[in-house]
Design a protein that fits this description.
Blueprint (H helix, E strand, L loop, with lengths): L2 E2 L3 H10 L3 H4 L6 E5 L26 H8 L3 E6 L11 E2 L3 E2 L15 H8 L5 E5 L6 H6 L3 E4 L20 E5 L2 H11 L33 E5 L10 H16 L3 E5 L6 H7 L3 H14 L9 H7 L4 H13 L7 H24 L3 E5 L19 H6 L3 E8 L11 E7 L5 H15 L17
Parallel strand pairs: 2-3, 2-6, 9-10, 9-11
Antiparallel strand pairs: 1-3, 4-5, 6-8, 7-8, 7-12, 11-13, 12-13
Helix pairs in contact: 6-14, 9-11
């Protein structure tokens, strides 16, 4: 953890003194952890960087304020991939986060600290951010539920940015019901985030109402074959996914094979990801909003040398070198390709009459500690389209000496915009049928791990 909340105990004691709040605040005293790129008034927000150590925003992020109003007790800020730029959750401020299911492996990223805290029973639930993979990758690696909502459903105000085109934030939880509860609170229109205007009227009265054991009956799910790989290192994930697809079918889903190389993740990552064009301007504006930020811009952070250089150097220096950034003519061409891909995905839904797409979040098991990034991730489809996606536990690889339960594998379900309720229903039905949640043996069990 990067910082513990000095007021958390007092907040819990206040609930003890006034138990009537339990009936009026939907997240009453729920112990949460936040990824350390969410602004908090009483704790620093550092993005995991020594260069930003002690940076204290003036107020809570919009989503944090909503969580507090609902009664959540924020215990701490979790370690993360520094500045949310990568997939192995290593930072100069907090070091390397270890996967509690296999201490020789990473926990995914960038929200890996949150994922580990929730998986290891250090908190009931938590939050992450997802520019390409970074809520769903830790969900996959830590046997959790991770929800990336439709872009604009949850405000990004007060969250350290990476990309205005691709960023989203959302919950990481041990159960689908907890994900629905957090989403209910976090979603909503924010006057300071124009993107959320699109979400006006899109939040149902109850996401929990979608959680039905038979929700998969008759659902048409497109199995995206381009997002399954075929090399020996992919066999463990493919085996787990085949069993998960069989369970979906047994639960009543109709599986439709989608053979379409437009979904190829390697190509999409190489040709359409616009983070490097957008990061510098957004990051500099964010730093300007923090009264005591130790660095005033990206150039200053790079000059300080106080960051995890092996993991970040290439991206940071490349982003700083883009003199024209979002004014670059090439950038517009990338946005045009993103728009075309978004339209194509929507057309696949329409032509095949699909309710969701299904695929492994990661084509191979989460990588060992020491590698600089997680290879073969598929989160780019949601990252580019802005469509909602939920990652749920699909199973485990075979047990080994370092992974006594096996390494967790996650399955993504991706839907059309504003269909979070439907996705939560599918995820819940699968969760109840498969019952794949297992607490890690490396961490103590606190109370019941069923919540």
């Amino acid at each position: 953890m990067h910082a513990q909340n000095p007021t958390a105990l007092a907040q819990a004691e206040a609930f003890d003194k006034d138990p009537s709040r339990l009936a009026t605040e939907p997240l009453a005293c729920m112990p949460l952890v936040l990824m350390d790129n969410y602004n908090t008034a009483e704790m620093p927000t550092t993005g995991g960087s020594k260069a930003l150590e002690g940076a204290r925003p003036a107020e809570d992020a919009f989503a944090v304020a909503k969580l507090r109003k609902a009664g959540a007790n924020i215990l701490a800020k979790a370690n993360m991939q520094e500045l949310a730029l990568g997939g192995v959750s290593v930072s100069s401020l907090g070091g390397q986060v270890r996967n509690p299911y296999d201490l020789t492996r990473t926990p995914g990223g960038s929200s890996g600290g949150t994922g580990v805290a929730v998986a290891a029973n250090l908190a009931l639930a938590g939050t992450g951010s997802d520019t390409v993979n970074s809520i769903r990758s830790p969900a996959s690696a830590n046997n959790l539920v991770g929800l990336r909502p439709t872009q604009g459903l949850i405000s990004l105000s007060g969250v350290m940015p990476v990309s205005k085109t691709q960023d989203a934030i959302g919950p990481l939880t041990r159960t689908v019901a907890d994900a629905a509860a957090l989403l209910q609170v976090m979603a909503g229109v924010d006057p300071n985030d124009p993107l959320t205007a699109k979400g006006e009227g899109q939040v149902p009265a109850s996401y929990a109402a979608f959680l039905k054991p038979d929700a998969l009956k008759g659902a048409r799910l497109g199995v995206v074959r381009a997002l399954f790989a075929t090399k020996p290192e992919h066999e463990a994930v493919n085996s787990v996914m085949q069993a998960a697809l069989d369970r979906l079918r047994e639960a009543g889903a109709v599986l439709v094979t989608i053979d379409d190389m437009a979904f190829d993740a390697d190509t999409l990552n190489a040709q359409d990801d616009v983070q490097s064009y957008e990061f510098k301007a957004l990051f500099n504006a964010y730093l300007a909003s923090v009264p005591n930020a130790p660095q005033k811009d990206l150039a200053g952070l790079i000059a300080s040398g106080l960051y995890a250089k092996p993991a970040l150097d290439k991206f940071l220096t490349g982003a700083e070198a883009r003199q024209t950034g979002m004014q670059d003519p090439e950038y517009k061409a990338w946005l045009d390709r993103i728009a075309a891909f978004k339209a194509h995905v929507a057309s696949v839904f329409a032509s095949e009459r699909l309710d969701a797409l299904v695929y492994p979040q990661q084509q191979r098991l989460v990588v060992p500690i020491g590698e600089l990034n997680q290879a073969d991730r598929n989160g780019i489809v949601a990252g580019l389209t802005g469509f909602p996606a939920i990652d749920i536990p699909a199973g485990f690889s075979p047990p080994s000496d370092s992974a006594p339960l096996g390494v967790p594998v996650g399955m993504d379900l991706l839907g059309l915009p504003w269909t979070e309720g439907k996705l939560l229903g599918f995820a819940y039905a699968f969760e109840q049928a498969a019952k794949l949640r297992r607490p890690p043996q490396s961490a103590p069990t606190v109370g019941s791990d069923s919540k």
